[in-house]
């Protein structure tokens, strides 16, 4: 349930993990590097001088073929880890959402620095891409803060469903900034998503004063709704920027800008709000550590899934976030979702699944 990075990859929850083939960049680099270094070609046959030898090409191909369904399993595991991370955000009681973001940035920074040193990519990035890296960092970290605030002020299921409206905004922004085609199908999926969000928000001028299923007062619920929609918008903008940069920027460098600028942004906001305080409860401290661990684990498995599976099936499987959110809300908070929430979730999930299936079909032609 994180935006893509995701922290990425937006951070879609986690801003920063685009459901494109960009994640497979690291897979294609190793053979190229080996060839450039003059590594011996173990597939060349001394008898027929072909590379690879026809007698050995088929077994090698079979050896490298991934296990069927492994990519989808990785995606399911990623969805579960992201959902557990969101559950811990909801369970934290005495820590502001911005402070949770700061702790997560620190944790991820400790992981990303060794990766950047090992890959020798530097910490600044290509000169022509730095402005996009800065925008990616600011927008991605803002998206993370907003979704954490949404989880703290509204139910887990409602917040998760609204964040899944991000693909709709991605299509619109890609049409505006990248001149990508915006078809009538995209417009239809947008309408479905808007209907789903309306069913969850339940504005009084349409639904009257019925507030059943809302955890806090309606005003607090509305603040959480705006935060979740803001997360979807900023996650979509982050994904458009990642598409713009393409494969010219290393993935870990993108995360580096995300965590550094996210930490700076969080400290500034906490200073303005005066909300900085170490958690008093030892359980809250444990939750903060687990938020970082499970969030990072979700990113790792999502990246692995995108390396061996097409983006369409991965995007469809990612909707399991919503299922896990409903299950966790019932089990851990004893809060049974209303039929309005279920209907809204079905609309948003159908919109996401439809868009993913359509793009998958187009790419397979």
Automatic annotation (TrEMBL):
The answer to keyword Cell membrane applying to this record is yes
What are the record's GO terms for cellular component?
Answer: endoplasmic reticulum membrane; plasma membrane
Regions of biased composition (Low complexity) lie at 29-38
TM spans (from-to): 70-89, 101-119, 131-151, 157-178, 185-205, 225-243, 255-274, 286-303, 315-333, 339-357
Q: How does it sit in the membrane?
A: Multi-pass membrane protein
One Pfam family from the record: EamA
Function (record text) = May play a role in intracellular calcium sensing and homeostasis. May act as a negative regulator of plasma membrane calcium-transporting ATPases preventing calcium efflux from the cell.
UniProt-recorded name of the protein: Solute carrier family 35 member G1
